C-alpha cells in the first residue's frame, strides 16, 4: 500500500432512497496540473460576465461560482459532489457518528415522522418518547408534506437550544407537546444479541469512526452471554457503507491476518493500493489494535452474512472479502453495486470537494461497480417473496453512474425489466388497500425476520427456503446475436 495514502475520517451522508453513502479516501494532492484549456476558460468567464450584466436581476458572485463548481462536479457521476459551508458541516458530522439533535431513529409513515426508536440516554429517551410515536409538528411547522431530511434538519440545531415536538401516541389516542433540549448525540452503529443458545446476531447499520470499537464491545458482550457459539449472523442489510478503514477492520476480525481485503485502482499512483487484514491497513491512529480484544473464537465461528439491495459500498467490501475467502456464506439479495472510491479534499476552511478517484475490487479481482455482490444463497425478504425489492434504486439505475470498467457495454436485462413491471403492479395493488392491511416488512432481528430465520437454518444444517422471485441483474451481459 502506498505510504502516501491515508484513510480519511469522512463519508458522504447524502443518501439516495436511504441507501447510498460512500467509501472515502484522502490522498495527497497531485503534484502538477495539466495545461489549462484557455479558450474554454475564456468562454466560462464570458458567460459569467453576461449573467452578471444581462440577467433580469442581480446575482451574487459567490453563488454563481459555487453553482458552476457544483454543476461541473455533479455532471461526472452520482457520487462526486461540491460541499458548500452547510453541506460540508453535515458531511463531517455524519462521518463521526455524532450530531446535535434530540436523539431518535425515525422513519416516514402516512406523511408523518414515526419514531422507530429513541437512542438510549438521549434527550428524546429521557423525555419519554416511545417507538411508534408520530411527530405531527416540529415547533410551529406541520410535518405533513415535509421530506424526512427536512424534518431531520428542523430537529437538529445548536447544543442547549430547545425544540418543541407535537406527538400523537396511537396507543393512548392522544396528542401532546414535548419540549426537548438538543444535545450532542453519539449514534451506535452496531447492535447484537444471542438469538438462542449457540447462535447470535450482530448488525452493522453504518461504518463510522466508532463502528470498530462498538463492534468489538458488542462481540465481547455476546461471547460473555454465550461463550460456546456455534454460529454467528453478520447483518449488513440496508447498511449504506461508510469508512474504508472500518470495512477493512470488520473484515479482518474474521479473516487470517495479512490476507487481501480490497484493492483500488485509479489515475493517481496513490489510488493504486491493496488493503490487507493487518493493523497498519485499518488503524487510523497509532495505539493498541482494537481487534486484539476480540475472542479468538471469532476467527473460526461459522458465519452467515446477510445483505440486500440497500447494502452498499463499505458493506459490499466486507461481504465480498468474506465471500471470496470462503470465510462466510453470503445470503439475501444482490447488493447495491457501488464499487467506486471517493476522495474528499478541503477547498478552504469550510468548503470541500468529494471526487470519485478509483474503482475498488474484491480479493479475487472482481469489480462490483454497477453489479453488486451476488449472494451464495438467494433468500427473499418474506415467505411470500421479494417482489417489492425490485423497485428499489440501485447503482445501475442512477444517471451517469460509473461503468464497471470491464469494457463490455451495458444492456437492459429483459428478465429484470419484467420483474420490475410485476413489482410495480403489486405495489399499486397494495397502495389501494387500507393502511392497516398493507404488507409491512418485519423489523431486522425480530422473531418475524424471515431472512434471519433462514440464516439460522443454514447454520444449524436445516433446510433453507431459497428465493422464488429474485432476478440477478447484470447490465454488462453481452447481447445475444
CATH level 3 topology of the largest domain: 2-enoyl-CoA Hydratase, Chain A, domain 1
Beta strand %:
15-25%
Helix coverage percent: 25-40%
Q: Can you tell me the residue ranges where pLDDT is under 50 for at least 5 consecutive residues?
A: 1-22, 24-32, 475-481
Level-2 CATH architecture of the largest domain: Alpha-Beta Complex
Query: What's the total helix number?
Result: 11
**Cα distance spanning the termini:** 43 Å
Q: State mean pLDDT (0 to 100 scale).
A: 85
Count of structural domains: 2
CATH top level assignment of the largest domain: Alpha Beta
Structural class: alpha+beta
Q: For this structure, what is the CATH homologous superfamily of the largest domain? A: 2-enoyl-CoA Hydratase, Chain A, domain 1
Give the structure's gist in a few sentences.
Pfam families: CtpB_N-like (PF22694), PDZ_6 (PF17820), Peptidase_S41 (PF03572). By secondary structure, the chain is α+β, with helices and mostly antiparallel strands. 26% of the residues lie in helices and 22% in strands.
Structure description:
One of its GO terms (cellular component) is outer membrane-bounded periplasmic space. Residues 402-446 are annotated as: Disordered. Residues 410-441 have a biased composition (Basic and acidic residues). Keywords: Hydrolase, Protease, Serine protease. One of its GO terms (biological process) is proteolysis. This protein starts with 22 loop residues before the first strand and ends in a 21-residue tail after the last helix. The protein is globular and about 75 Å long. 39% of the residues are buried. It has two domains: 100-186, PDZ domain (Pdz3 Domain, Roll), CATH 2.30.42; 190-340 and 360-460, 2-enoyl-CoA Hydratase, Chain A, domain 1 (Alpha-Beta Complex), CATH 3.90.226. A hairpin with a 2-residue loop joins strand 6 (134-138) and strand 7 (141-142). The chain contains eleven helices and 20 strands. The strands form four sheets. Strands 1, 2, 14, 15, 18 and 19 form a six-stranded mixed beta sheet that branches. Strands 4, 5, 6, 7, 8 and 9 form a six-stranded antiparallel beta sheet that branches. By secondary structure, the protein is α+β, with helices and mostly antiparallel strands. Helix content is 26%, strand content 22%. The longest helix is centred in the C-terminal third of the chain and has 18 residues, at 414-431. The model is unreliable at 1-22, 24-32 and 475-481 (pLDDT under 50).
Amino acid at each position: 500500500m502506498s505510504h502516501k495514502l491515508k484513510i480519511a475520517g469522512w463519508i458522504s451522508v447524502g443518501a439516495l432512497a436511504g441507501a447510498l453513502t460512500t467509501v472515502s479516501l484522502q490522498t495527497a494532492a497531485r503534484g502538477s496540473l495539466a495545461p489549462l484549456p484557455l479558450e474554454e476558460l475564456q468562454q466560462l468567464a464570458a458567460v459569467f460576465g453576461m449573467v452578471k450584466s444581462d440577467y433580469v436581476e442581480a446575482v451574487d458572485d459567490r453563488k454563481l461560482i459555487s453553482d458552476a463548481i457544483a454543476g461541473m462536479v455533479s455532471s461526472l457521476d452520482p457520487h462526486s459532489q461540491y460541499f458548500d459551508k452547510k453541506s460540508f458541516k453535515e458531511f463531517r458530522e455524519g462521518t463521526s457518528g455524532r450530531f446535535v439533535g434530540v436523539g431518535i431513529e425515525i422513519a416516514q409513515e402516512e406523511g408523518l415522522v414515526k419514531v422507530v426508536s429513541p437512542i438510549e440516554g438521549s434527550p428524546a429517551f429521557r423525555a419519554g418518547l416511545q417507538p411508534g410515536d408520530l411527530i405531527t409538528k416540529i415547533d410551529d411547522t406541520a410535518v405533513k408534506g415535509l421530506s424526512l431530511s427536512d424534518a431531520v434538519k428542523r430537529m437538529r440545531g445548536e447544543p442547549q437550544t430547545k425544540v418543541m415536538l407535537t406527538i400523537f401516541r396511537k396507543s393512548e389516542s392522544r396528542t401532546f407537546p414535548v419540549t426537548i433540549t438538543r444535545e450532542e448525540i453519539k449514534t451506535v452503529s452496531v447492535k447484537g444479541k444471542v438469538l438462542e443458545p449457540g447462535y447470535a446476531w450482530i448488525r452493522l447499520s453504518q461504518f463510522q469512526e466508532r463502528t470498530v470499537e462498538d463492534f468489538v464491545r458488542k462481540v465481547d458482550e455476546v461471547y460473555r452471554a454465550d461463550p460456546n457459539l456455534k454460529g454467528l449472523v453478520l447483518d449488513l442489510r440496508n447498511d449504506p457503507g461508510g469508512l474504508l478503514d472500518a470495512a477493512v477492520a470488520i473484515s479482518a476480525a474474521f479473516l487470517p491476518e495479512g490476507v487481501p481485503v480490497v484493492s483500488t485502482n485509479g489515475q493517481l499512483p496513490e489510488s493504486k493500493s491493496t488493503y490487507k487484514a493487518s493493523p497498519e491497513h485499518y488503524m487510523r491512529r497509532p495505539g493498541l489494535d482494537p481487534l486484539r480484544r476480540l475472542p479468538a473464537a471469532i476467527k473460526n465461528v461459522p458465519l452467515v452474512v446477510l445483505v440486500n439491495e440497500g447494502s452498499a459500498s463499505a458493506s459490499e467490501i466486507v461481504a465480498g472479502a468474506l465471500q471470496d475467502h470462503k470465510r462466510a456464506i453470503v445470503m439475501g439479495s444482490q447488493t447495491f453495486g457501488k464499487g467506486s472510491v471517493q476522495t474528499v479534499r478541503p477547498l478552504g476552511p469550510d468548503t470541500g470537494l468529494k471526487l470519485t478517484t478509483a474503482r475498488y475490487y474484491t480479493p479475487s479481482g472482481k469489480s462490483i461497480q454497477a453489479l453488486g455482490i451476488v449472494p451464495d444463497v438467494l433468500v427473499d425478504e418474506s415467505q411470500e417473496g421479494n417482489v417489492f425489492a425490485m423497485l428499489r434504486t440501485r447503482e445501475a439505475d442512477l444517471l451517469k453512474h460509473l461503468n464497471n470498467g470491464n469494457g463490455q457495454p451495458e444492456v437492459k436485462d429483459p428478465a429484470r425489466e419484467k420483474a420490475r413491471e410485476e413489482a410495480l403492479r403489486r405495489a399499486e395493488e397494495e397502495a389501494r388497500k387500507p393502511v392497516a392491511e398493507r404488507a409491512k416488512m418485519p423489523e431486522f432481528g425480530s422473531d418475524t425476520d424471515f431472512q434471519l430465520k433462514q440464516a439460522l437454518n443454514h447454520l444449524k444444517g436445516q433446510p433453507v427456503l431459497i428465493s422464488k422471485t429474485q432476478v440477478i441483474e447484470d447490465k454488462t451481459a453481452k447481447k445475444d446475436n
